[in-house]
Amino acid sequence: MSEVKHIPVLLNETIEGLNIKPNGTYVDLTLGRAGHSSEILKRLNKDGLLIGVDQDKVAIEESDKRLSKIASNYKLVKSNFVNFEDILTSLNIDKVDGVLMDLGVSSPQFDESSRGFSYRYDAPLDMRMDVEQKLTAKEVINTYPEAELRKIFYEYGEDKYSASIAHNIVKSRAVKPIETTFELVDIIKRSKPAKELKKVGHPAKQIFQALRIEVNNELNVLKETLGQVVNHLNSHGRLAVITFHSLEDKIVKKLFKELTIVEGNRTNFPLVTEEKDYILITRKGIRPSESELENNHRSASSTLRIIEKK
């Protein structure tokens, strides 16, 4: 397999935002190819520790090669980040000084055609982050009822043609199973009017996003993981989250607001004395610079939000 370069998104902003202590303990819950983790490890002394987590065994192997050239004070764990608390327990760790979650699919996963994440390559319908799990995009497309497909496409993909796409998928699979990404792309294109196909952007993007979220249970896993992480931050420990679409960003923004802002109303607001345990470091989400957008088009939809435990 040829090496595929992965450019970490919002790298400088994230590393600066984590406010890394040289002797601290930091967790990268979305290790990928160690783009962010490499920079974290460079800033730790021998008393510091980096923990990298990824459910993709290839990512673990490639990151190990890269990080070993920098230092040895790191541990890599193959797991879904929803197992955050179990991972800490297994390492006899209770609190950490920083956690990073980069919720984008890594470039190698997109560019490795056999993974089936991309509508630009003809490949088996897969989309599993963890290739050892059972559920694939092929199973979703070929077995889910039409109403369920429509709901997934509309809620996770926000595609206004979800109903016609779901209907045409069910019609097509009645003739023969839908096996590949290009077969699905053809159905999506047939389900949209000509004026829609002329718009900028690939017509299958939203449906592929929806499928990926469903296959990997991404939104539910995100909610559960965020709830765990904030309870295991040391004083002045920070959580940095990079999102790539509005569904993820709404979840992160809502939780961060709940943890940092006291809500009042016309009758009780002057009397509110409650103090929150967390500080919002990013009042507004941080977006990529113009230079980053020029060098890495995949950063275009990214937003960084950071919270700190008091």
Task: Please give a quick description of this structure.
With 310 residues, the protein is an alpha/beta fold. It contains 14 helices and seven strands. Strands 3-2-1-4-5-7-6 form a seven-stranded mixed β-sheet, with helices on both faces.
Write the layout of secondary structure elements.
Layout: H1 11-18, E1 25-28, H2 35-42, E2 49-54, H3 57-67, E3 74-78, H4 84-90, E4 96-102, H5 107-111, H6 137-143, H7 146-157, H8 162-175, H9 181-190, H10 194-197, H11 205-216, H12 218-229, E5 233-243, H13 246-260, E6 278-280, H14 290-295, E7 303-309
Helix pairs in contact: 7-8, 7-11, 8-9, 12-13
Instruction: Give the averaged pLDDT, no decimals.
Output: 92
Q: Characterize the overall form.
A: globular
H-E string: HEHEHEHEHHHHHHHHEHEHE
- Please count the helical segments: 14
Regarding CATH, which class of the largest domain? Alpha Beta
Which residues sit in consecutive blocks of at least 5 with pLDDT less than 50? Answer: none
Q: How many β-strand runs?
A: 7
DSSP strand content = 5-15%
The CATH homologous superfamily of the largest domain is called Vaccinia Virus protein VP39
Proportion of residues in helical segments: 40-55%
- CATH architecture label name of the largest domain: 3-Layer(aba) Sandwich
Category by helix and strand content? alpha/beta
CATH topology of the largest domain: Rossmann fold
Domain count: the total is 2
Radius of gyration, taken over Cα atoms and rounded to an integer in Å: 21 Å
Q: In order across it, which strands form the biggest sheet?
A: 3-2-1-4-5-7-6
User: What is the terminal separation in angstroms?
Assistant: 46 Å
- What profile does the largest beta sheet have? 7 strands, mixed
